[in-house]
Design a protein that fits this description.
The protein has about 270 residues and is of the alpha+beta class. The strands form three sheets. A four-stranded antiparallel β-sheet has the order 1-6-7-5. A four-stranded antiparallel β-sheet has the order 2-3-4-8. The radius of gyration is 20 Å and the shape is elongated. The two termini are about 30 Å apart. It binds zinc ion. Zinc ion binds next to loops. Zinc ion (ZN) binds next to loops.
Length: about 270
Amino acid sequence: MPELPEVETTVRGLEPVLNGRKIARVEVRRADLRRAFPEDLGQRLTGALVTKLWRRAKYGLIDTDRGDTLVFHLGMSGRWRIDPEVILAHDHLVLTTDEGRVLSLNDPRRFGSVDLVRTDAVGSFEPLAALGPEPMDLDVSELKRRLAGRQAPIKQLLLDQSVVAGLGNIYVCEALHRAGIHPKRAGASISTDRLKRLVPAIHEVIGEAIAAGGSTLRDFASPNGDLGYFSKSFAVYDREGSACACGGKVKRFTQGGRSTFYCPRCQR
Ligand SMILES: [Zn+2]
């Protein structure tokens, strides 16, 4: 499943192909993904000039000179393909630029989404409206304020998109491990000193993953590059039973329906 760093990598990969280009052709190859494609998608995008590509949480955003923003989410299995040699069954949306470059949105499981909203109203677009700050913009005082009075486990709070936006299961597990904080600890009970370890840990795990994605981006310079996923190595995530660097052993339990990985020796 693509997390924030994959979405960031995707946006950076699309940028050189799309930014400053006109969209010459739009092919919508089925009616819906998770929800219906906008009915007027082709009409509003065809001939539009792309003025900016950006990301908010796990959403990619493409602004045009017509005051529209295409908002995409990759769901469970979505990825953009650049200049594919053949269009595949699961390429549901195909854009062709005025330079003849082709971008296809491939999503076999169709949990992704494509919406078109007015650029000046992006902030009030429902999926984006209630989001907390970007993980890279989070600071200690902001997090402290957001955790105040919250008795829920820190793991759950960090996954709450209104506390911090776009932080997924993998990076929450990794950041808590790096900061030495037990995933079940109540949010409000974490001292400022420990938040001063947690915030940089969040910045580091996300920053390192984006850097890793950036290194895979070089491969996309070649035709047929598929944007979206890259291999990563983790200290605790998906490593149940493995040794932690502290000499402890990584354990797993279920929290809010999702697997939490942690080290009982160095996370308190
Ligand atoms: Zn440990």
